[in-house]
Design a protein that fits this description.
The complex is a heterodimer. In chain A, 72% of the residues lie in helices and 1% in strands. Chain A is an all-alpha fold. In chain A, helix 1 packs across helix 11 and helix 2 packs antiparallel against helix 10. The radius of gyration of chain A is 19 Å and the shape is globular. Chain A starts with a helix and ends in a 5-residue tail after the last helix. By secondary structure, chain B is mainly alpha-helical. In chain B, the strands form two sheets. Chain B has a three-stranded antiparallel β-sheet with strand order 3-4-5, with helices on one face. In chain B, strands 1-2 form a two-stranded antiparallel sheet. The model of chain B has no long low-confidence stretch (mean pLDDT 87). Chain B has 23 helices and six strands. Chain B has a domain of 45 residues. Classes of the chains: A mainly alpha, B mainly alpha. Strand 1 of chain A pairs parallel with strand 6 of chain B.
Chain lengths: 299, 612
């Protein structure tokens, strides 16, 4: 059980790191470049892990450990396919939203502990972005939980599979699918919403002071976080996966499309992110929830 | 010593003893407060929970007219509040010297403890009101010992509204049922709507919920630091107790709303849930933009009070369990956070975040206490706040309350923002030179309560089932089916939670990360000023410390709207003042024109009466 969970976390890391490399290649081809090798991100991480770095005090290190630990713990609960799940019945949706926050808090704490104002500004922007994308997403998830009568991810996936492949919630709740996809871009820190990384503006925001093993561990943490968020989308909206292969295909499609979409956008300012989500996305989410629950119109 | 009347009398007489001893030596008086509050905590805890539920003797021998009755609800709240009182009392010796009436401080502290015990254990509504007033009046004189006397007048204004509502509710209950028994609230069959709203006004005024929230941040910012913690963790919970009386014990008021099988609440309960949601949203938005750590935590108390109201309004066993668990989780979290801030203030003399920074280097244990408290306050596992928020979300989703859900989600994510602010600005960041010399780790007497609270914060998050079992007794007493509990599982309405499993996996995750960290090359330690500055040479710590207006871009989006409620109350106060001046002019002045006016009026009336 626990071993399977650790394996899921490790597998998620390997999967997402390769996917990240493949997608860098795809984007490069889009921009008429060759792009790096698909395993370039592995090389980057291992190089960082092997280097000697500087530390700004115990909280700087402790935060990194807490961040990676929290994310590994979250990934351990993630179902991959119908059969590959470490803790059946305990894959509650709220665990993913809130346990992931432990990791985020650890990273934010460590970044602020470095004493660099750019890191604090980056954390501020990351939390503000979170306030923007999380609420519409949760409203749609409320609708999904209510319709499938369970908050367990694997049960939600099974309830979609039960009615054939076109019972997926991205089809049943089209507006909700749009809301969740845009929220996913926010979660992943993809381009219209990558305000908190903003390399040219904030020198990579929270990451500004890191190097060596701390940066390497945060890269690992980031890859696993992306794995959790994309897998969450696959299970909530695309009917989960009957086996590993289907999961990989769906995962690749979601991540690649998110990448392609994000590459045609510029970057919002932070207040524009908040206004965008509360002016356009949240009303969409409310309309979807009202027509699906109170009026009972589900495709 | 298991007689409740005796406990109250002992605490009252200890209060007088504290005053007498405090006259000789202020610190001696505060030692009595520690002893007194621990006496209450141990007796209530021991006789109430550990021995058997009926272990407490409820007979009243000395004052037979004041009767007491045992309820699990009262015991539950009593233990929580007594716990808060006893934890906070450790801080009294360090702060009491600063206050003008230090002997009275200790006395009032114990008197308000006696009052709260009375509120939770009396079964007579008249004496419930009496004890409620005892708490209001004792705390009223504790507040102005801090920074501002104006805060006390705000508190008085709103408490008076709450007290009068409670009094009218008591009288109406008497009119409807013919007796003053607390249990008779359940049998009220007329004036339901009036009684409901009067009890709700009393609860809102005490809990600091929208629209009666203005006093809460003012009082919590300006009262003495231990009293702030006491208000947030203990005294505010009296409001939750009254809310249970109004929302759960009283028969439901209003027609049932049902939309396609969802909502299923009465209009009155739905209205309270919406007000609770507004409390959450306004509390969160205001907390985000505060610069004073105490004010920030005060608004977070308001927001968490909203969660309790939403939970109680939903009236099913999951929601009720969530609400009652949130009372415990928030009492622990906010007491811990306020005490940590008080410990910082003890050395630095300020709670303004722009004047503080890098406290972690001198006060690492205080920092950890604060960290764990805010993890619980933000509802992140593996702390207690997650369990209660999970239970509340379960019922919000189960009832399909979309608009309430938006507020609860917003408050939950918003709490990440505001709790992180003191963490980043006050404890982390650059170590500012002005506090470097005089700051050191809090003394052992302060660390004891903070560490106890920290352990309990973790305990409530990892193994909640013992406390949930006790809450089940309360829920059964209120006439609902108890929550389904396994050995470590909690069965909600649409899923099962295993907090011990989550915490265990978190431990494993951290262990893996730690092993990776240890195995790799050791880092070189550098100072905090040795950072990337984009080519500038910066030698002043304050220039590298980002703390003022932390969320400025977000705050700008709603800065025009923040004063609406306080402007409203200020204009109400102006109107009251004008009315008072008008009455004074007509009835309490000896100006000649008024005398002439009255003589004329009387003459006209006399003539009129003669003609007709």
């Amino acid at each position: 059980m626990i071993l399977l969970g650790v394996l899921v976390a490790f597998g998620g890391f390997v999967l997402q790191t390769s996917m990240g490399g493949v997608n860098r290649k795809i984007i490069a081809r889009l921009q008429k470049r060759y792009g790096p090798k698909w395993y370039q991100e592995f090389l980057d991480i291992f190089k960082l892990l092997s280097k000697r770095a500087t530390s700004h005090g115990w909280i700087f290190d402790f935060g990194v450990i807490m961040a990676l630990g929290g994310i590994i713990a979250t990934a351990m609960f993630m179902p991959v396919s119908n059969n590959i799940i470490a803790f059946p019945g305990y894959d509650n949706f709220f665990i993913f939203v809130y346990l992931i926050a432990v990791g985020m808090l650890g990273m934010a704490m460590s970044a602020s502990g470095s004493g660099n104002p750019l890191a604090s500004i980056g954390v501020m922007r990351a939390l503000t972005t979170m306030l923007a994308y999380e609420v519409p997403f949760m409203v749609i998830v409320l609708t999904i939980i209510k319709l499938s009568k369970s908050s367990s991810l694997s049960a939600i996936a099974l309830s979609q599979q039960a009615g054939g492949d076109f019972n997926w919630f991205i089809i049943a709740l089209p507006l909700g699918g749009v809301v969740a996809f845009i929220s996913l871009l926010g979660m992943l820190g993809k381009k219209p919403f990558e305000t908190y990384i903003a390399p040219a503006e904030l020198a990579s925001g929270p990451m500004v002071e890191y190097g060596g093993k701390q940066l390497g561990m945060l890269f690992i943490m980031h890859e696993i976080t992306v794995f959790i968020e994309v897998a969450l989308f696959v299970h909530l909206f695309l009917g989960g996966a009957e086996n590993l292969l289907i999961f990989l295909v769906k995962y690749f499609l979601v991540y690649a499309i998110a990448n392609l979409v994000s590459n045609v956008f510029g970057r919002f300012k932070i207040d524009q992110v908040v206004v965008f989500f509360y002016k356009w996305i949240l009303p969409l989410a409310i309309i979807q929830a009202v027509i699906a629950l109170y009026l009972g119109w589900v495709i | 010593m298991n007689n409740i009347e005796l406990i109250i009398l002992v605490v009252l007489s200890l209060g007088i003893l504290a005053y007498v001893l405090g006259k000789f030596n202020a610190k001696l008086g505060t030692v009595v407060t520690i002893l007194g509050s621990f006496f209450v905590l141990i007796t209530l805890g021991y006789y109430g929970f550990v021995m058997d539920p009926q272990g407490l003797d409820m007979t009243s021998n000395l004052f037979p007219s004041i009767t007491y009755g045992f309820t699990y609800l009262g015991l539950f709240f009593g233990v929580i509040v007594a716990f808060t009182f006893s934890m906070v009392s450790f801080f009294n010796p360090f702060f009491v010297d600063k206050y003008k009436f230090s002997a009275a401080y200790s006395m009032l502290y114990l008197f308000s403890l006696a009052g709260t015990v009375g509120v939770f254990f009396t079964n007579d509504l008249r004496f419930l009101f009496f004890f409620f007033e005892l708490v209001v009046w004792t705390s009223l004189f504790l507040i102005p010992m801090g920074d501002s006397k104006k805060a006390a007048s705000w508190y008085y204004g709103f408490s008076a509204l709450g007290s009068f509502s409670l009094l009218f509710a008591v009288l109406l209950i008497f009119k409807a049922t013919g007796n003053f028994n607390v249990a008779s609230i359940g049998t009220v069959d007329q004036y339901n709507v009036a009684i409901f709203f009067l009890l709700i006004i009393a609860a809102f005024a005490k809990l600091g919920a929208f629209p009666l929230h203005i006093w809460l941040p003012k009082v919590l910012t300006n009262s003495p630091d231990p009293i702030t913690a006491l208000f947030s963790g203990g005294l505010e919970k009296l409001g939750a107790f009254v809310a249970v009386l109004g929302l759960v014990k009283l028969a439901p008021v209003g027609t049932m709303i049902s939309l396609n099988g969802y909502i299923n609440m009465t209009t009155a309960s739905y209205f309270i849930a919406i007000l609770g949601s507004m409390t959450i949203v306004f509390g969160t938005l205001m907390a985000i933009r505060q610069d004073d750590a105490k004010t920030l935590l005060a608004y977070s108390s308001m927001s968490n009070g909203g969660y309790i109201l939403v939970a109680l309004a939903m009236m099913n066993s999951t929601a009720l369990a969530g609400g009652l668990y949130h009372v415990i989780a928030h009492a622990l979290a906010s007491t811990g956070a306020f005490l940590a801030i008080a410990a910082v203030k003890h050395y630095t003399g300020t709670t303004k975040m722009k004047e503080l920074g890098g406290m972690i280097h001198k006060m690492p244990i205080t920092y950890l206490v604060y960290l764990i408290a805010i993890i619980s306050m933000a509802g992140i596992p593996p702390m207690g706040g997650f369990i209660s928020k999970w239970l509340i979300f379960q019922s919000v989703i189960d009832k399909g309350l979309i608009f309430v859900a938006i507020a609860t989600f917003f408050g939950s994510i918003g709490s990440f923002l505001y709790v992180f602010r003191p963490l980043a600005a006050l404890f982390l960041g650059q170590e500012l030179p002005q506090h470097r010399e005089k700051t050191k780790e809090a003394p052992i007497l302060m660390l004891i309560p903070m560490l106890i609270i920290t352990v309990l914060n973790i305990y409530t998050g990892v193994i909640p089932n013992f406390i949930l079992g006790k809450i089940n007794l309360v829920i059964s007493e209120l006439g609902l089916s108890p929550l389904e509990l396994g050995v470590t599982d909690i069965v909600g309405l649409n899923g099962t939670l295993n907090p011990a499993l989550i915490s265990g996996m978190f431990g494993i995750g951290v262990a893996i990360a730690f092993v990776i960290f240890i195995l790799l090359k050791k880092s070189k330690k550098v100072g905090l000023m040795d950072t990337y500055t984009a080519g500038n040479f910066v030698y002043t710590e304050a220039l590298l410390h980002y703390s003022l207006d932390f969320y400025a871009p977000l705050e700008r989006l709603y800065e025009k709207q923040i004063n609406i409620m306080s402007n409203f109350y200020n204009s109400v106060a102006n109107k009251v003042r004008e009315f008072g001046a008008f009455m004074k002019y007509f009835f309490f002045s000896n100006k000649p024109e008024i005398t002439v006016f009255f003589i004329m009026t009387i003459v006209i009336f006399l003539l009129w009466g003669d003609v007709l």
